[in-house]
Amino acid sequence: MVVEKINSIRQTLPKGVQLVAVSKYHPAIMIQEAYDNGQRIFGESHVQELVQKYEALPKDIEWHFIGHLQTNKVKYIAPFISLIHAVDSEHLLKEIDKQAKKNGRVIPVLMQVHIAKEETKFGFLPEELLAFIASGTWQLYENVSIEGLMCMATNTDDEAQIASEFEQARLLFETISSQYSVFKGKRSICSWGMSHDYSIAVRHGSNMVRIGSLIFGERVYQ
Fold this sequence. Notes:
Layout: H1 2-12, E1 18-22, H2 28-36, E2 41-44, H3 47-56, E3 62-65, H4 74-77, E4 83-87, H5 90-102, E5 107-113, H6 126-135, E6 144-151, H7 159-179, E7 189-191, H8 198-203, E8 208-211, H9 213-216
Parallel strand pairs: 1-2, 1-8, 2-3, 3-4, 4-5, 5-6, 6-7
């Protein structure tokens, strides 16, 4: 079942859009099934669960941390994490840099932008992120590689609002890209779009989508 669902989603994604299979709250056996079908990027949002899965599953998996990351938990994932999606403060960026240096690594990260009309979402407001990038202080952190932006749209059925928010993120990304040499990866990443809105996200600049329930079904909370 996982194989059929993941293949179906891949067929809907344009060339160049990467799929992060959001595996949080799902057992390792389901991740293994997706892995056996060629999926290599998986997203988790709880440090303890991620560490357990990292230890149990193949080591060529690219683990992405997609949730709100507490600074005191960075040290547990710093040795192996492939990408941290949700850097929502300079304080967190500084801690990731510190732990990356301890592990002799440069850790790729995305800056999280708060564009949703919800107070519960984390991230820099667009003007805050622009001010931070303009300040140049991000250059002090030599063991992190800022590779793009991440955001979440408002949880609503209003597709016009969702599209407007993703478009805001795309324009912010283009503004930063054109004015600053901050995005350091082989290609810059725009990570927006989840199971319910990824098709809208792709139309508005996303080249990395985070899809969970459409692949693995509803979450099994532990």
